[in-house]
Amino acid sequence: MSEAPIEHTASLSVEAELEAFVAAYEAALARGAAELEHYLPPTEHPRHVEIAAELVRVDLEWRSSRNEEFSLDSYRSLAPAAFDDADARAAMAFEEYRLRRANGEAVERTDYEQRFRIDVKAWPSLELGATRNDATEDSLKQRAERLRWPSAGESLCGFELLEELGRGAFGRVFLARQPELADRPVALKATARRSAEPQRMARLRHTNIMPIYSLHTAGELQLVCMPLLGRTTLAQLMQQDSGASSAIGSGRELVSTLANQANATQVTPDGMSVVGDPQADAARRSSAERDATAAPGLRRDAAMTQLARLDPVQTAVWIGARIAAGLAHAHQRGIIHRDVKPANVLLSEEGEPLLLDFHLADDLAAGLPSALIGGTAPYMPVEQLDAFAGHGSVDQRVDVFALGVILFEMLSGRRPYADQLDGSQLGIETLRRERQRRAPSLRKMARGVSPGLAAIVEHCLEPDRRHRYASAVELHEDLTRHLEHRPLRHAKDRSPRERLAKWSRRHPRLSSGATLAALAGILLFAIGALWWSGRESLRRAAALKAVEQVESTTTDATAALNVPGLPAAELEGQLEFAKRAFASAESMIATSSRYIRADEQTRLQLARAQLAYLLAAGHAQ
To answer: Which of 35, 352, 401, 583 is deepest in the core (most CB within 10 A)?
Structure first.
């Protein structure tokens, strides 16, 4: 259905009238299919040529964004006057040239010079796939600036807007109320252009990915309705702790911060967003801190109790592991994020990190050509910078790199790479050269970071993506294993001391002197039982148990002494452990051998021989 054409108004400037025609046509495109001829000014309009040429350019870009076929020649019959004007014809021709180069088509400037009889000497030579050039970005920003954005107090598509939570160049996020569904509070994201983000997010159902409720269109705006799960992003949390040696406080501090955020702003039944009084806030803060360490049965979520027990380093690793879990879910379903950064991670009121803004995400199966490669400079690896410049491609390892930067930033309080120099933004080539060097040592910049954790971050930040984690699945596994004091599976854990410490934490009973005392106790029990009971079966059972204990102790001693590069002090301690075990085996052979079978005696002799070998080899080191 066509709309009435906009009438010429002499009082309007050329720019204002042009914007009015463009806004009307873009609004029609946002609502669905629109026929260009219904939005062109009449041929007698004094600005017909300029407006027609601009609308043709808008239509070309719209078709290109939807992967539709387009050709400038198809517009000749619609706007012949624009094609008769040399300047208008050149402007339209350049738009088609730019879009085709952006889509990877190897068209040349000379093709347009011959085809449209225009001078192309001043045209820039565009890289194939370079859609994110300055002209395109400026055009998108200008279009967003022309929009009439909603504000708090208005109603939109059945939502009552209560408060603006945040804004960017192309969108706004509002705290809203949905009267149709029990006045539930929601987060409503309004963007200046349509994207496939809602469809991608709808395919992802994971604790650490923000879910969506519904999708709406209001004029030129796309609205995405999401649950209101929190207000604090990881970027905001890191800014709060910017004065500390790390950018993340302890788990207890995080729980308190999230509780304050949840309680400070409430939505009343009449839809008002209110802030509590300072005394009430202080009481809630105190209550939140008590709850953080309360018994699990008194907590609404046991995860908060677990989180509250973590120190700053453990908290950073836990947050990183949860983000990696969400990314792993996306990677396993063929989707990469491409803009992982602290501002795109929301911390829910329950402490769970949730990935936001999949507007730059794309399918792995599509091969991800360099077109429409976005991102945020400090979190972009070499290959993403190359693709941004118009050559190369990216895969899921760009998300791994970005999460590595976040981990580095959380642990040290600073990013591994600079993104500004002398107050001005670095050029892409300068950033590329920097990313091609290894990141600085995390352990030199952050206290409490173990060699294993540093190895995980270094593995994320490898300049050559072939040497990084293959996907977030592997990264999540290593972060989880580190939290559980298990050996890493994918990154190189080079510290024998840390591996031994992890083994000790997993087996506290086996790594203490109590084990030897227990062995002696078992032997005494066996002898006492033999003395007092007089029953052959009990004697055999006690002796067999002692044999098994000797074998188990031998296995533990073998594992401990086979760690390469063991420090002298720890080597001496493990040798003492083996020496006592050897003495226990000798005692067993002397006192209990008559109560066990021949094959069990052989097992005992083998354990004794193994211990003797370990002692000899250990003293030789």
So the answer is: 401
Distance CA 429, CA 424 (A): 14
Over residues 401-428, the pLDDT tens digits come to 999 999 999 999 999 987 654 334 456 7
> Which helix (H) or strand (E) segment is 407 a member of?
helix 397-412
The answer to whether 315 touches 249, Cβ cutoff 8 Å, is yes
DSSP annotation of 525 reads: H
Structure tokens at 475: 């990264």
How many whole angstroms from its chain centre is CA 337? 8
Ramachandran angles phi, psi of 257, nearest 5°? -60, -45
Residue 394: CB atoms within 10 Å: 27
Q: Cβ contacts of residue 414 below 8 Å, gap of 6+?
A: 247, 408, 445
Structurally, at CATH architecture level, domain 237-504 sits in Orthogonal Bundle (1.10)
Beta strands at 159-167 and 155-156: parallel, antiparallel or unpaired: antiparallel
- CB–CB of 205/191 below 8 Å? no
Q: What is the pTM of this model?
A: 0.59
* Span 21-59, pLDDT tens digits: 887 888 788 777 678 998 999 989 988 999 999 999 999
Decide yes or no: CATH 3.30.200.20 for domain 155-234: yes
Largest CA-CA distance found in the chain, in angstroms, rounded: 121
3-state secondary structure of 163: strand
CA gap 520, 587 in Å, rounded = 10
Residues paired with residue 163 on neighbouring β-strands, in sequence order: 175
Q: Which residue has the tokens 């029953």?
A: 535
Residues 589, 570: contact at Cβ < 8 Å?
no
